[in-house]
Each structure stands twice: as C-alpha cells, then as structure tokens.
Amino acid sequence: MKAAVFHGPLDIRFEEVEKPVLEAGEALLRVRACGICGSDLHTYRHGMFLQLGKPIDEGRILGHEFSGEIVEINGELGDLKVGDRVVTVSIGANAEYLKITPEMAPLVLRIAEGISFEEAATNEPLATSVHAANLADPLDNETIVIMGAGIIGLGVLQCVKAVSSAKVIVVDLSDKRLDMATELGADVVINAGRDEAVRSIMELTGSHELNLVETAEGNVDTVFDCAGAGKNSSGASVLEQALAMVKQNGKVVVVAVFEKHLEIDFNIVVRKGIQLLGSWAWTPAEFMHSMELISSGKIDRKPLITHRFSLEDASEAYATQLKADEAIKVVLTP
Questions:
Q1: For 13-63, how does the pLDDT look when each residue is reduced to its tens digit (9 = 90+)?
Q2: Are residues 237 and 146 in the same domain?
Q3: How many domains does the chain have?
Q4: Residue 50 belongs to a domain with what CATH number?
Q5: Which helix (H) or strand (E) holds 30?
Q6: Strand runs (DSSP E) across 138-282, as ranges?
C-alpha cells in the first residue's frame, strides 16, 4: 500500500509499504481523510512524540485523526460491516489502509449521513477541545480568553459558544485564523503581532495591581493556552501572559504542548489562587460527544479545512500546515 513515512525532522517520503494483514476479529479500514495534528508537526519539525507514529522499517507512519470505510473483516467485529463509514482513533493513518483491532472497537463510530469523511476526520481534535472546555465549565456571564487560534483553539471557541453565551476573546498572530475566529463567533480578536495581548485585554476587562507579587489582576474568568512555546520562541510565554490576565481564583487551562521548558513564577499562581489545569486529549465519552456535536450540526467543522493533499504530496502538506498565515487544518486524502 502507499504511505507517507517520516524518516526524521522535515523528512516525509511517499513510499510503498506492507499492507496490514488481518487476524481473526480484525477489520481493514480504507483511510479516506487524515488531518495533520499539531503533535504531528512537533514530530515533523523536531522529532518529538515519536510514540504517536507507527514504526515500520526505518521510519514511522504518522497520523491519528482520521476517517474511512470498512473494506474487509476477518470473522466478526461487533456490529461492523463492510461498507460502513466510520471514525475511530489509532496511529499510522498517513496511509491507504489501517487495521482496526478488537481493542479499538468501542471507539469505532459510524459517520452520520451528510457528514463528509473530511469533517469526520476532525472529530479527534474536536474531542480534545471538548475536554478542555469541560474543564473550564464556561458560564453565560463569564469572559474567556483563548490564546492560539489553531484547530484546537478554534475548537474550544466552538465548544464554549455551543454551551454558553460567554464573551470570548481570541488572540493569535495570524489574521487568517483570527478572521475564522470571528466567523465562528468570537466577540473580540487580537493580533498579538500588532497589539500587546495582556495590555489590550486588561484595557478591555479592567485590572488592578496586586500586592506581594509584581503583577496585575484582570477580570478574565478563564484563559486557554492553546499555543504553548516553540523551541525558538522568546519573550513572555503565553502561559505567563495567561497567569497575568486571569482574575483572582480564575482558571488557566493548558491545552498546548511545549517544545521547551519554561520558568514560571508560581507565587502568582499562589497569590491569585489560580486553578491551573492541564488538558490532555479526551475521554471516550468526550470522543463520542464530539461526533454527536458534528452530526447534529451544533458545531460545523467544514470552514476549518483549508487545504487538501494526496499522499504523494504529503511533504508539501506538512510544510503547508506549518504556515499559520495560510493554513488552519490540512487534510491528506489517501
């Protein structure tokens, strides 16, 4: 079968690899769409998170947010049948085919009629956004800031707006992504390349100085860090900015992963009584709920898909996903 194989930083190659061989109780999925995730980019750029790729020969097949069609079943696998359009989770989906094992069966979800393979492939990142939003438990009268308007940050925006009328401020460096945030319901957008984010948000929400620590207290109820810190980033990190702008006893939900270590003044966390919450992936129930949100039309993922590439052009696809001014979600269509 054909696959896009990662061989090292910035080295993705289109190759012929061995097609999965089914054992009893396993199914073969023909991959129809696979998104390029932020964690895939960390691997692509720096060789991080190699465990998220399926090892083969001298390389790895990346890809864990995907959808496809059941084309073969060896014996029986629950109530699945050949021809079913499904979404599930595994690794190695930058390829034509993927094996579904009995262990995966509980999270094999049928795709509703009218939902495309591409939309369904965004279910896994949306589930990550659902998990983060659930940690925040947004309320109607709250002010929420989302730092980073990639697929996860925009998904958080969609989730918050689906369950509340909270005021949402979105911060990013890309006008394209901020325009999308506005389209999806953001109340205010701030380009951090032109305006200093903390000062701008303090001016919008109000603030006052705190004693004992050299920082201010804002009126932001929850800040989502959906940006993290790149290896070459400089200046105050997004996490430091989040801690500065959040209110007393507010929440900071960290959804992003970090390419470098940060030094944080935890006196700010203590003095302000901040709930600092790490948000990793999702629960099975959230994965299922995410698909319900897409199927019901409560959340529309179509606008987020900006680029489509064949497996043959996977190297270009990964390079494109790195361009925040151009791309939001790049999808491979094997």
A1: 999 999 999 999 999 999 999 999 999 999 999 999 899 899 998 899 999
A2: yes
A3: 2
A4: 3.90.180.10
A5: strand 26-35
A6: 143-147, 167-172, 188-191, 207-209, 216-218, 220-225, 246-254, 275-278
The verdict on pTM exceeding 0.85 is yes
Residue where the block lists tokens 């109340």:
187
For residues 66 and 98, the answer to whether their CB atoms sit within 8 Å is: yes
Distance CA 252, CA 264 (A): 13
Q: To which H or E segment does residue 34 belong?
A: strand 26-35
Cβ atoms within 10 A of the Cβ of 180, count?
A: 21
Tokens matching residue 138? 């947004």
Both 194 and 322 in a single domain? no
Task: Report the percentage of the chain scoring pLDDT > 70.
Answer: 98
State the average pLDDT over residues 237-259.
94
51: amino acid identity, one letter: Q
Statement: residue 230 has pLDDT above 90 = no
Residue 26, domain extent: 2-122+301-332
Q: Do residues 65 and 37 make contact, with C-beta atoms less than 8 angstroms apart?
A: yes
Cα angle value 171/174/180 (rounded, 5°): 75
Q: Taking the chain, what is the end-to-end CA distance rounded to the nearest angstrom?
A: 10
Amino acid 236: pLDDT: 87
Residue 285 lies in a domain: no
Asked if pLDDT for residue 209 goes beyond 80, the answer is: no
Same-domain status, 259 and 145: yes
Q: What is the CB-side half-sphere exposure of residue 316 using CA atoms within 13 A?
A: 7
